[in-house]
Amino acid sequence: MAVRVLVVDDSGFFRRRVTEMLEADPTLKVVGTANNGKEAVEQAKILKPDVITMDIEMPELDGISATRQIMQVAPTRIIMFSSLTTEGARSTLDALEAGALDFLPKRFEDISSDRNEAKKLLCERVKQLAHQRVNVASAVKPLLRPASPAPQRTTESRPVATQKTVAAPITSKGGINLVAIGTSTGGPVALQEVLLKLPADFPVPILMVQHMPASFTPAFAQRLNDQCKIQIKEAANGDVLQPGHAYLAPGGKQMLLKKQGGQAVIEIIESAPNLTYKPSVDITFSSIAKIFPSQTLAIILTGMGADGREGSKELHKGGSKIWAQDEHSCVVYGMPAAVTEAGITERVLDIHDIGTSIVKRV
User: Fold this and answer.
1) Is the bond preceding residue 213 a cis peptide, omega within 30 degrees?
2) What is the per-residue pLDDT across 145-165, written as a single tens digit (0 to 9) for each?
3) How many CA atoms lie less than 13 Å away from 84 in the CB half-sphere?
4) pLDDT digits (tens, 9 = 90+) for 181-235
5) d(C-alpha 129, C-alpha 141), whole Å
6) Is 136 part of a structural domain of the chain?
7) Bridge partners for 123 per DSSP
8) Model confidence over 51-63: pLDDT tens digits?
9) Which of 66, 165, 209, 291 has CB atoms 3.0–4.6 Å from 37's, for a disulfide?
10) CATH number of 227's domain
11) Counting Cβ atoms within 10 Å, is residue 267 exposed (0-12), middle (13-18) or buried (19+)?
C-alpha cells in the first residue's frame, strides 16, 4: 500500500514541486495539499495521512503552531521544511519540540546539487519515517511535561561553556569517566529530557552526537545550555574534556577523542564525502574506545538506522557499559533497536528514567 502524504506550504509552486517529486515514486501518494497551517490541521483530521511535509512560515497559522495542534487532535508523522540559517535552526528546533519528527532543507540544492538525487533522498526520508517503528505519541509528551528551568537561567542566554583549568582525568581504574550519547530522529527532545536531570556538579564529561546540519548545532547547543544546569557547548578542536561539561559534535564534521599530554582532547575533522552521517556516532564512539575502553557509559537514544551499533560494539568489547532507550519512549526505534538486538546493552530504559539513572550510575 502506498504511503499517503499531505503537502503543506503557502507557495503553490513549492506544493506542486514537492508533489511531483513524491509522486514520481510509485510507493508514495499525495492525498492532499494545504496552503496554510489552519488548512493543514483540518486536512490532517479528515485525510489521516501517513506523513505530512510542513513549511514553517505560513499565513493564518504558522507551521509550528499547526504542528502543535495536529499532534493534539490527529497525531501524525511530520517532516518540516527548514532554511539552513541560524533563525531557521531555531524555528526548526521549536517545531521539533512541538512534535515534528524530522526536518529537511527547503532549498533542495542544500540536500543535493543533483536534482534526481535530491528527489530520491526526499522520497527515502518520507518512506523511512512512514515505515520505521515510530511512536508518534511520544513526540507529544514534552509539550505536556514542561521542563523546569535551570536555576542559573535569566532573561538572557547563559554563556556557553568555556575552558577551565580542571580537566577530566584519564585513568585505568574502574568506574565511569565519560558519558557518550548518540541519537538522530527525535534526538533534540530526548537529549533535553536526559540533560535536564543532570546536576551542575556532574562529575564526568559528556560527548554527544546528534545527526544535524552544520548551521543547526550552534543553536541547539546554546538552547541546551540555556535550559540545563551543566555547561553545554558545540565541540571545538582542542577542547579539553572537563567534568560537568557536555560537548555537542558540530554538524557536517566528525568528532574524535584523542589523548594529549595525559588529557582527553577533542579533535574535529572534515568528514569523508562518502559517509552518510556527518557527524557519525560510530566514528566518535570508536575513537572513545581507544581512550576510555572500559570507563565509558555509552547511551543510544531514538533515531533511524543503525549508526552507533559498531562503535558501541567496540566499547562493549573493551568493557564499557551500553544503555539504550526503550521502544515505547522512542520516537523512532531504529538506532536503539540495533544495539539492543546486537546483545550488548546492559540496560534498556524509558527516556524519562535515563537522566536520573546516569546520575546514580556515575
Assistant:
1) no
2) 334 444 444 435 566 555 444
3) 14
4) 999 999 999 999 999 999 999 999 999 999 999 989 999 999 999 999 999 999 9
5) 19
6) no
7) none
8) 999 999 999 999 9
9) 66
10) 3.40.50.180
11) middle
Among the three residues 112, 131, 150, which one is the final residue of a domain in this structure? 131
Cβ–Cβ < 8 Å for 300, 339: yes
Active site residues: 184, 211, 307
Write out the H or E segment, with its range, that includes residue 299: strand 296-300
Q: Given pLDDT bands bounded at 50, 70 and 90, which one contains residue 273?
A: confident
Count up the domains in the chain and report the number: 2
In the numeric block, the cell 575533522 is attached to 269
Cis bond upstream, residue 279 (ω within 30): yes
The cell for 229 is: 544546569
Contact 196, 230 (CB under 8 A): no
Three-state DSSP class for residue 180: strand
Instruction: Name the residue range of residue 247's domain.
Output: 142-361
274's grid cell? 562518502
Best CA proximity match to 102, nearest among 87, 82, 119, 84: 82
